[in-house]
Specification:
Belongs to the ATP-dependent AMP-binding enzyme family. Pfam families: AMP-binding, AMP-binding_C. The chain has a nine-stranded mixed beta sheet, with helices on both faces. A hairpin with a 6-residue loop joins strand 12 and strand 13. The protein folds into two domains: 312 residues, ANL, N-terminal domain (Rossmann fold, 3-Layer(aba) Sandwich); 103 residues, ANL, C-terminal domain (GMP Synthetase, Chain A, domain 3), CATH 3.30.300.30. The chain has 427 residues and is an alpha/beta fold. It is built from 13 helices and 26 strands. The longest helix has 13 residues.
């Protein structure tokens, strides 16, 4: 069922209940439903409807309007440069697969990639069908206010908003992950959808033993100290692992470790996580990505994990070298494609380095004696999305390579972490 219909039903039953807040702006369910009805696009079912504004309330209204029309809304991150957005949208088809268009209604970017847009499209049921299981984890009711910070272009944020609206709750939007926005919003929240590096900020702003009771935390590994700190404040933390392509995979509601989410089967194949569930996405629009399937309904994005028999799932990173930083997925090849165009760069490998708050940070290992950090940072600011920009810049005399002449990515990453690869700060 489209979330638009749920909003219309709440508008009919409780028209004056607050549906969404963003700063000082407020929309009741009646106002949100009327706005979505008025904005419903005149398109055929399955048409792709890009949403490019910068007002979170307008974007949420447009998302519901497209959903109500049977179209596929695609929210673009307001932080993207216009030329970056045009390049991504220009590579996409106007409609999704017509054979499945009747139930395809949600699309989102897996990362802020440059030149190779990766847009995942999913059915309504792959989200709405998991709402009941999410209800049991969060106990969200119509009396709750649910904080969903960040851009609605993120799967995490879009899902949180859709689930809260379906429950008849009040959605509290911020539009970004900035500390001032979170501090202003947190004291009003009963439930929050967060990434680990912002949990501490919300706990501080909410106050000890305050209104906040549950934090849904995904996008990166959650440390024990943060969970303990939340518990001391009376906040239960539900940590989960998933991917835009796979939706929820595993969940840890009590600190005992990740176990399969309701309806999900998990299988490790040579350490690679394969998933079979009703929540899988339909696939990609435009260029493909890491999602792979087999003939028996199993799918993977290349994440690695281990388990001890029937014990919890322990994540080990991504086999393709993707960097998971603060809830965003950065594909190294996309960053490398930009940096290698800089004169003086003889080779570059992008890796993820461990970080206590963000999970990982993007690092660039550069070969080239005639290039400076300032030059590379200027190019990164101009051509890369914020999550893609390297936080650390390292220089090497020569990149280790495979027998085929390609940079040995795994060897480089391991060598930087354990100090076996001689590096120095890029001047």
């Amino acid at each position: 069922m489209p979330v638009f219909r749920e909003v219309m039903a709440h508008a009919a039953d409780h028209p004056h209940r607050v549906a969404v807040r963003c700063g000082d702006a407020v929309r009741t369910y009646a106002q949100l439903a009327a706005g979505a009805e008025a904005a419903r696009p005149d398109v055929k079912p399955g048409a792709l409807v890009p949403l490019t504004g910068d007002d979170p309330l307008d974007l949420l209204t447009g998302l519901l309007a497209a959903d109500g029309a049977g179209a596929v809304p695609l929210v673009c991150d307001p932080a993207w440069r216009p030329e970056h957005r045009r390049a991504m949208l220009g590579a996409l088809p106007a409609t999704v697969d017509a054979a499945a268009a009747h139930d395809l209604a949600w699309a989102g970017f897996t990362s802020g990639s440059t030149g190779r847009p990766r847009v995942v499209v999913r059915s309504r049921s792959s989200w709405t069908g998991s709402f009941a299981a999410t209800d049991r984890l969060t106990w969200i009711s119509a009396d709750d206010t649910v904080l969903v910070p960040g851009s609605l272009s993120w799967s995490l944020t879009a899902f949180g908003a859709a689930h809260a609206l379906a429950a008849g709750a009040t959605v509290l939007l911020t539009g970004d992950w900035s500390v001032p926005a979170l501090r202003a919003a947190a004291p009003s929240a009963d439930v929050a959808h967060l990434v680990p590096h912002r949990l501490a900020t919300v706990l501080e702003a909410a106050g000890g033993r305050g209104r906040l009771r549950t934090a849904m935390v995904g996008g990166a590994a959650l440390g024990t100290a943060l969970r303990d700190r939340a518990a001391a404040s009376g906040v239960g933390v539900v940590a989960y692992y998933g991917a835009t392509e796979l939706s929820f995979v595993a969940v840890d509601p009590d600190g005992t470790g990740l176990r399969p989410f309701d309806g999900v089967e998990i299988e490790l194949r040579a350490g690679e996580v394969w998933v079979r569930s009703p929540w899988l996405a339909h696939g990609y629009l435009g260029d493909g990505g890491p999602l792979r399937r087999d003939d028996d309904g199993w799918a993977t994005v290349g994440d690695l994990a281990s388990t001890d028999g029937e014990g919890p799932l322990v994540l080990r990173g991504r086999g393709d070298g993707a960097v998971l930083t603060g809830g965003a997925t950065v594909v190294p090849e996309d960053v490398e494609a930009v940096l290698t165009t800089v004169p003086g760069v003889d080779g570059v490998v992008v890796i993820g380095l461990p970080h206590a708050g963000l999970g990982e940070v993007v690092a660039a290992v550069v070969q080239g004696s005639e290039v400076t950090r300032a030059t590379l940072e200027a190019v990164a600011r101009h051509r890369l999305a914020p999550a893609q920009r390297p936080r650390r810049w390292l220089a090497v005399d020569e990149l280790p390579r495979t027998s085929a002449g390609k940079p040995a990515r795994a060897l480089i990453a391991t060598g930087v972490v354990d100090g076996a690869l001689p590096t120095r700060p890029l001047p």
